[in-house]
Amino acid sequence: MDNAKVFFFSVLVACSGSNVLGLNSEGTHERYDERLRQQGEEIQVLKQQVALLAETVEKCGCHSSSKEDENRGKRLLSLPTAHPSPQQVAFYAYLTQNIPNLGHHHPIVFNHIHINEGNAYSSVDGEFIAPVPGLYVFSWTLSSPDRKCMESQLMKNQEVFGHLIADACNHDDYAISSGTAVTRLNTGDKVFVRTGSVHSPTLYGGGGLSTPSFTGFLLH
Q: Which residues sit opposite 165 in a β-bridge?
């Protein structure tokens, strides 16, 4: 009899447990369905927002096609590039001897070359010929002894773009003058120093109180 009671009680507990599990399972499915419904609504809202953004981009023309990107790249590649220039263009030359019998507008040849990077200055005719286009800096120094004077001009081809005078005409003392100029040159342009219209017949070289010189370099 006791065994029958135990068996009956066990069956009752098992059935009760099955009903509880069934209720729990049914509640879980309902929660899943509600969550899926909410996610579906959120997806619809996101789709609408994406459509609005796409319409805005289309109206403002912010997008670019692959064809436009390709054309932009071609334009960038076709931009002109600077011509490569020698690493250094610079010279310094000075006068070691007197130059007699100078006339008006006579080129002054600075005969001794100290440095000539780029080989653009010639001690034969005193001319610097630009090997590359660019911005150049030039400087020159002349002197005159007692009771002498020397007017000089810095020339760019046939254009005067620098002028100075070392004037000791009315006193017993050396007169020393220097000038500096900046100019833009094209390839083949010539720069040199020449006498002006007011000067003594002789330009005195080194050995005095100063050294007549001519120098220049490519800035960029």
A: 151
